[in-house]
Write a sequence for this structure.
C-alpha cells in the first residue's frame, strides 16, 4: 500500500543529502558527518508542502549564515524527475518545497486504484498485538465507562490492523475472586428475602415483575426481612436473577447451607450475565476474538506457579505467614502482598499470571490494555512483577481512560451505582444511535475528560460531527446518482492535473495524509485522530463542493476530474468510517 506523503518526504531528504554531497565535493561544506535535519509539513501551506531546517542546523559546521547555506543547497538540488516542482527560501534560512501537479494527481489515482484498501500501511510488520478492553465485572450490566472503553478499544484494534499489525481483541472475564463472592452474597440475600413469608406476600400482591422489583428495592431498608448490608450489589438485576431462579426452581435452595446456596445461584446467574455482556457488546458492533476467564488461571494453578517463581528467584519473601513482592527493588515506595497469611492470593496475582500468559505463553509481541484512570497505581505494580519474572515489561502498554460527563438539556446526568439506576451501555444505545456513540466516545484522546451531549448526539445538523461526516458521504452518493439520472456518464479515468483550484488542492492533500494519520494513531494508541480526520475531510469536501461546480465545470475534462475526485473522497470517507465501524448512508 502506498503512503505518498512518506515517499515524498523520503525523496526530499535524499535530494537534500545529494545536494550536500555536491557541496562537500566542491569543498564548500566540511567533509564530516553533518547534523541531522528534519523534513516536515508546515502548518501554513503557503509556506510549501514540505519544509526542511537543514541550513539552520548546518550553520555551525559550515561556519556561514543559514540563509547562505540554504541558497547553496537550493542551487544544487536537481528536482528533475522528482515529485517536487520548485523550492523557496524563507526567513533566516528555511527551505520550502512545493509538490508538482503530477503528485497531486497520483494521490487521487491511488485512492481509485486501492479502493477499500487505501490507507493501509505495513508499519506494524505483522507483529501480534493483543488489545484487551472493557473486561467489565460480569456481576452486573455495563456502565457508561465501559461504553467509552469499548469504543476506544475496538477502534484501536481496527487502527492497528490497518497499520499492518495482527491485532486481536480480548475480554478478560473476572469470574473468580472477591467480586464473585460479593455477587453470590447479594443473590443469596435477595433469594432468601423472596423465600421468606414477607417475600411470598409481596410476590402475591405484585404479580407484575417490574413492580415487584421496584417494591422490593424500595423496601430494602424496611424491616428485618429486607435489610441489605453495605457490602453487596443493590442493582435491580440482582433481584431479577433471584426471582427468576425462584420461578424456575422454587424454594429448593432455602434449606441448603449458605455456601452451597450461593454457589448454585452464581452458577445460574453468572452465565446469564456473561452471555448478556457478549450480546450487548455485539449490539455495539464489538466482537472479541477471545473471552479469557480468570477462573482458568486458578484452575491451572498459574497463581501458585507465579508466586513460587518469585519466591525461588528471591524476588518475593515470606513474612508473618504472608508472601511479599520486593517492589522496592523496582523503584516502588513499598513492597506489596502477593499471598495473605490465610493462604488467599491478592487481586493482583491472577492479573500477573494473566499477563504472563499473554506475553510468554501465547507470545504476543505487545499487549495493550484500555483501563480506567483509577488504575494508574496498579500499572507500575503489574510491570514490576512482570520484570521480576523475566518478562520485558515494555511489551505491556496501558491506555488510561478518563470518565465521560453525560449532559442533557445543558445539565449533567446524575449517575448512581448505589441505587442501581445508573445509565448502562444498553440504556445509552436505546437513547442514541450506535454510530453516534462510537464516534463521540472517540472524539477525544482517551486520557482527556469531555462532555457527551446526549441531545447533540441525536441532532440532524452540521453541529453533530457524526451526522456532518455521514452527510458528506451521502452528498457524494446523491451527486453521482443525479449525474447518472441526467445521462452524464461516470468516467473511469480523468486528467487530475487539471485540478489546481486551492479548494481542490487542499482536499487532495488531506486525502494523501490518511496513511500517515492511521500510522500516527497506531503509534500513539489514539483512534481519536481518525474522527478528527473524518470531520476535517468532510469540511474540506463541503468547501470544495460549494466553490467548484462539478456538473457545470468549465470543460468536460475538468468535470470528469472533479467527478472522480468526489468518488475518491467518498472512498476515503468509507474507509475511515469502516475503521470506526460506523455506517455510511447513501441518503440522509
Amino acid at each position: 500500500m502506498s503512503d505518498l506523503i512518506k515517499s515524498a518526504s523520503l525523496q526530499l531528504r535524499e535530494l537534500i543529502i545529494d545536494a550536500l554531497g555536491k557541496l562537500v565535493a566542491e569543498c564548500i561544506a566540511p567533509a564530516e558527518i553533518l547534523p541531522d535535519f528534519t523534513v516536515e509539513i508546515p502548518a501554513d501551506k503557503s509556506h510549501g508542502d514540505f519544509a526542511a531546517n537543514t541550513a539552520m542546523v548546518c550553520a555551525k559546521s559550515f561556519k556561514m549564515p543559514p540563509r547562505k547555506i540554504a541558497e547553496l543547497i537550493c542551487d544544487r538540488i536537481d528536482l528533475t524527475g522528482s515529485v517536487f516542482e520548485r523550492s523557496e527560501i524563507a526567513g533566516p534560512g528555511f527551505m520550502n518545497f512545493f509538490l508538482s501537479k503530477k503528485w497531486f494527481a497520483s494521490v487521487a489515482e491511488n485512492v481509485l486504484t486501492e479502493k477499500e484498501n487505501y490507507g493501509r500501511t505495513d508499519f506494524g510488520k505483522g507483529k501480534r498485538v493483543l488489545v484487551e478492553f472493557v473486561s467489565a465485572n460480569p456481576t452486573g450490566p455495563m456502565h457508561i465507562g465501559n461504553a467509552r472503553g469499548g469504543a476506544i478499544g475496538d477502534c484501536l484494534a481496527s487502527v492497528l490492523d490497518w497499520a499492518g499489525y495482527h491485532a486481536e481483541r480480548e475480554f478478560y472475564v473476572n469470574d473468580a475472586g472477591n467480586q464473585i463472592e460479593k455477587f453470590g452474597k447479594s443473590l443469596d440475600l435477595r433469594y432468601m428475602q423472596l423465600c421468606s413469608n414477607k417475600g411470598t406476600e409481596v410476590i402475591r400482591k405484585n404479580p407484575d415483575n417490574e413492580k415487584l422489583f421496584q417494591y422490593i428495592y424500595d423496601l430494602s431498608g424496611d424491616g428485618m426481612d429486607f435489610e441489605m448490608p453495605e457490602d453487596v450489589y443493590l442493582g435491580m438485576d440482582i433481584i431479577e436473577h433471584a426471582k427468576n431462579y425462584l420461578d424456575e426452581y422454587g424454594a429448593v435452595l432455602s434449606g441448603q447451607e449458605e455456601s452451597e446456596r450461593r454457589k448454585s445461584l452464581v452458577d445460574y446467574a453468572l452465565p446469564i450475565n456473561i452471555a448478556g455482556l457478549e450480546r450487548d457488546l455485539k449490539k455495539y458492533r464489538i466482537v472479541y476474538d477471545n473471552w479469557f476467564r480468570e477462573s482458568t488461571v486458578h484452575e491451572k494453578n498459574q497463581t501458585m506457579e507465579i508466586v513460587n517463581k518469585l519466591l525461588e528467584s528471591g524476588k518475593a519473601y515470606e513474612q508473618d505467614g504472608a508472601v511479599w513482592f520486593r517492589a522496592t527493588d523496582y523503584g516502588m515506595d513499598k513492597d506489596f502482598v502477593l499471598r495473605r497469611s490465610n493462604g488467599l492470593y491478592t487481586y493482583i496475582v491472577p492479573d500477573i499470571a494473566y499477563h504472563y500468559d499473554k506475553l510468554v505463553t501465547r507470545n504476543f509481541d505487545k499487549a495493550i490494555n484500555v483501563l480506567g484512570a483509577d488504575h494508574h497505581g496498579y500499572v507500575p505494580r503489574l510491570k514490576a512483577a512482570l520484570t521480576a519474572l523475566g518478562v520485558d515489561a515494555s511489551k505491556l502498554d496501558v491506555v488510561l481512560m478518563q470518565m465521560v460527563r453525560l449532559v442533557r438539556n445543558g445539565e449533567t446526568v446524575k449517575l448512581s451505582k448505589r441505587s442501581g439506576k445508573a445509565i448502562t451501555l444498553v440504556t445509552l444505545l436505546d437513547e442514541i444511535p450506535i454510530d453516534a456513540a462510537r464516534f463521540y466516545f472517540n472524539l477525544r484522546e482517551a486520557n482527556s475528560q469531555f462532555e457527551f451531549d446526549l441531545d447533540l448526539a441525536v441532532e440532524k445538523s452540521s453541529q453533530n460531527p457524526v451526522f456532518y461526516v455521514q452527510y458528506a458521504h451521502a452528498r457524494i452518493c446523491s451527486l453521482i446518482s443525479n449525474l447518472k439520472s441526467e445521462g452524464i456518464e461516470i468516467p473511469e479515468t480523468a486528467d487530475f492535473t487539471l485540478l489546481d483550484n486551492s479548494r481542490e488542492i487542499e482536499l487532495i492533500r488531506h486525502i494523501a495524509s490518511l496513511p500517515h494519520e492511521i500510522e500516527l494513531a497506531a503509534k500513539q494508541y489514539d483512534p481519536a485522530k481518525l474522527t478528527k480526520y473524518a470531520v476535517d475531510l468532510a469540511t474540506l469536501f463541503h468547501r470544495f463542493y460549494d466553490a467548484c461546480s462539478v456538473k457545470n465545470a468549465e470543460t468536460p475534462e475538468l468535470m470528469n476530474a472533479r467527478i472522480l475526485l468526489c468518488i475518491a473522497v467518498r472512498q476515503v470517507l468509507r474507509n475511515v468510517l469502516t475503521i470506526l465501524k460506523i455506517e455510511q448512508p447513501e441518503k440522509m
